[in-house]
Structures are given as C-alpha cells and as structure tokens.
Amino acid sequence: xxxxxxxxxxxxxxxxxxxxxxxxxxxxxxxxxxxxxxxxxxxxxxxxxxxxxxxxxxxxxxxxxxxxxxxxxxxxxxxxxxxxxxxxxxxxxxxxxxxxxxxxxxxxxxxxxxxxxxxxxxxxxxxxxxxxxxxxxxxxxxxx
Length: 144
What we know:
This protein is an all-alpha fold. 58% of the residues lie in helices and 0% in strands.
C-alpha cells in the first residue's frame, strides 16, 4: 500500500498514556478542520505531498474510530496518488522552463531558442488543461 511506503511517517502513540494525551488534545482541536486542511492540501501538487499524506495517515490511525479512519484513508488515497502524479509530471515539464528569466524580443539570432521556450510553456498549459487533479468547473481557473 502507498500509505506504508518509505515516506516520512510520524510515530503513532506507543502506549495508553500517549493515546490519552492525544485524546485530550483532540478535545481542544476541531478534527473536521484538520481533516479539511489535509484534504485541501491534496489539491496542490507539491514536493511535500508525500510528507503531508504520511502525517495525515498517522493522524487518522491515531483516532479512536478505526473504521472511519480506514474509510477516509482509502477514500482519499486516489486523490493523493493523483496529486503525486501531477507533481511529478509538472516537475518534468518545468525542467525545460526557466521561470526567473524575463521574456525577450525575438530576433533572428534567438528565434529557435525562443520557439523552444514557447513550446515548453505550451506543454505546461496543455498538461494543466487535462485537469490532472480532476477539479470541477467551479474550481478550475484558467489564466490565458
């Protein structure tokens, strides 16, 4: 399972004292808010999605309701996998682009180089248009 990979995994409570401490802390935090935050993070393909997923899985496993925790982990695992896949593809596409360089006028000397830059950006935009995280129409914002 992906949730058991070699990703940074926070430790689970080792004994009843640690579990009691977690339970008392959970009385002071909004569990639904923590879940919403983690689920929302799966909409942002970043290099930290593996770490965030590991933390989320550990959080769910530490909760008292094992059935609900297992259901939520299995429900959101496909979203995590899509996030991780989208991040990998974006990193591959962005290797061909230097985002810190300003655009420059096209001249006969740099026309081929500029064409390659434009093509690289077009590949990124085309990938974004495939909607790899399957956002709904209301969630998607296209800037072009």
